[in-house]
Write a structure and sequence with these properties.
205 residues, 8-stranded mixed beta sheet, 6-stranded antiparallel beta sheet, alpha+beta
Length: 205
């Protein structure tokens, strides 16, 4: 009897924590890099498109990267420097990060110098513009700890994470959605000439 009550309590606690998590979806042109002090790990063959966060205020580090065709079999990658925005997640709402995509590479380079993004609740027609901020680390005594889990093709163990003081208690989890072509292009642009040669040697053997 006692075991049944204990298992029921654990299940109820897990369900209530999970139900508090809301989702922010990122378009392929924006890579979420960090939530507060927690790094979001991207891999060569997969990237994070969705981030689940408990209701609260968070500081997110993002990077803009876009691909534009430059004629037949030629293209240009446009990227911004990583930048921080502050978002507020409300209970019961899921969100999309939205922006006005430039029509060509020249306009995209201007956009990359000063990215402008908004947060739009799903089902809403209004988007809230997000201001670019400098990351403000929370005082050590005011920082709250919460577990973060990343879902992938293999089970991942829950690891402790430190979030900004404004974040209430709860869970934040990351969903990895594979997008091989986009990430292959992204990491190829980051690689040095030596790394590119080593990669080509490896895949052509």
């Amino acid at each position: 009897m006692r075991k049944s009550v204990l298992l029921g309590s654990v299940f109820a606690l897990f369900y209530s924590a999970s139900s508090l998590a809301e989702t922010i979806h990122f378009p392929e042109e924006f890579v979420p890099l960090q939530v507060g002090e927690r790094l979001i790990e991207q891999s060569f063959f997969s990237r994070v498109d969705d981030v689940e966060l408990a209701p609260g205020t968070y500081q997110l580090k993002l990077k803009y990267t876009d691909l534009y065709e430059q004629g037949y079999d030629d293209h240009q990658v446009v990227e911004s420097e990583p930048f921080w925005v502050e978002v507020t997640v409300e209970s019961g709402k899921n969100y999309d990060l939205v922006f006005n995509r430039a029509s060509n590479a020249v306009a995209a380079e201007v956009f990359a110098e000063s990215p402008k993004v908004s947060l739009k609740a799903k089902g809403s027609e209004l988007a809230m513009p997000l201001s670019i901020i400098g990351y403000r680390a929370a005082p050590a005594q005011a920082v709250a700890s919460a577990p973060v889990a990343a879902s992938s093709s293999q089970p991942a163990a829950t690891a402790p994470v430190t979030l900004p003081a404004k974040v209430p208690g709860g869970q934040a989890s990351l969903k990895n959605t594979p997008n091989a072509a986009a990430m292959l292009e992204f990491w190829w642009q980051q690689a040095s000439p030596e790394e590119r040669r080593a990669f080509l040697d490896k895949v052509t053997k």
